[in-house]
Amino acid sequence: MTMPAPAAHEHPTLAEASAVMRKAYELGWISTRDGNISVAMSDRRGFLVSASGVVKHSLVPTQFVFVPREQVGAPSADAYPRPSGELELHRRVQALVSQGPLTVLHLHPTHTVAALYAGHRLADLCANFPEVTRYTRVGADVPALPATSEELAIACEAAFRPALGPMPHIVGLDRHGIVAVGRSPWEAFEHVERLEHICRIVLSAGTTIHGGSDFSPAAHTEPAQPDGSPTEANMNGVTER
Ligand SMILES: [Zn+2]
User: In this predicted model, what pLDDT tens digit does every residue of 74-108 receive, in sequence order?
Assistant: First the structure.
């Protein structure tokens, strides 16, 4: 029997997801129509993603589109409302976790994008700040790729599936933004907030050496990977691949 698609506004997490996007706009982490968010259906028959081009400072639960798990490729030309242009990115990251709640959040936080633009590796930059490392795993940065492209979606999926260590909570997209995951929209939001705060501190201080730790991007030649140490985030965060 085929289940009918649920009415988007019946999903309780959508109120939280909408509030997160409104807050991100207030904080200047996106401009009016930027960013997107998806939340998994509790039975994993698909996910709900914010519609394409909607105004984020007034986002409401009725502006989400249901995407069935089995659906592949672009939506039909007459689909309305259309899902976010980053649908493929959401589809690939949502598919990395097969059960339980999951939010995938894409934003353009100013200082995080500036840190990437300045040549920092986000995982290295955060390594000496317990405020981040205790709770948030920062993955390898994704290189500059066209927004809404399949290449970007594939690169994001790869960044959330590291060869070593557990799944990160957040990855940076060079010249673009971040993708964060969490068990709820506000949990994903907190990962963005912690990283953005540290990027703001580091950029405010400049790229000088403090306490023997060199933040200069040129000083780091090894790829940044989460070490998988038993932090609180490992115990409480998203770990399934
Ligand atoms: Zn974007």
Answer: 777 677 889 999 999 999 999 999 888 999 999 99
Distance 213 CA to ligand 1 centre (A): 31
Contact 49, 21 (CB under 8 A): no
**pTM for this model (two decimals):** 0.83
Partner residues linked to 108 by β-bridges? none
Task: State the distance from the centre of ligand 1 to the C-alpha of 227, rounded, in angstroms.
Answer: 28
Distance 35 CA to ligand 1 centre (A): 5
The domain limits of the chain are 8-236
> Which residues are found with C-beta within 5 Å of the ion, ligand 1?
177
The class (CATH top level) of 8-236 is alpha beta
SS (H, E, C) the chain: CCCCCCCHHHCCHHHHHHHHHHHHHHCCCCCCCCCEEEEECCCCCEEEEEECCCCHHHCCHHHEEEEECCCCCCCCCCCCCCECCCHHHHHHHHCCCCCCCCEEEEECCHHHHHHHHCCCCHHHHHCCCHHHHCCCCECCCECCCCCCCHHHHHHHHHHCCCCCCCCCCEEEECCCEEEEEECCHHHHHHHHHHHHHHHHHHHHHCCCCECCECCCHHHCCCCCCCCCCCCHHHHHCCCCC
